[in-house]
Amino acid sequence: MRLRFLGKNSTPGDSPTLYASDQNSYVVQGWKVYANDLLAQLDVPEGQTIIEVPPELFEHLTKDGHPSGKIKTFTAPIMLVTEQGTCILQGPEIHDPEALSQMRMPDYETCIEVPKSSIVALLEEHRGPDHVRPA
To answer: What is the pTM of this model?
Structure first.
């Protein structure tokens, strides 16, 4: 899997990163989640993992042609939003050697692959069912 770097939100010791892949997906690198209170709220299937990232990371989607990177709908792959405002995402953990060789990832981070359509859906305002106006 080939990756194209979109952006990073870094502070000393932290480095959530967003990539576009050649597989019509995004690879999201974030902090591993160990908090039992968060883990207890989720059903994480075999082969998937959860990560934590700041919502500002998605602002880098503008570098992939999106007019905005502002999250408007908090649905899967975002599973939870913490009290601190960070996003808990769930998806298949990346084990692809080619992809991993293109990344710099500290031990306390991992990455997941998410379909582009799932991430793009987060940028759209959720609207309820259309209502028909009376004649």
So the answer is: 0.89
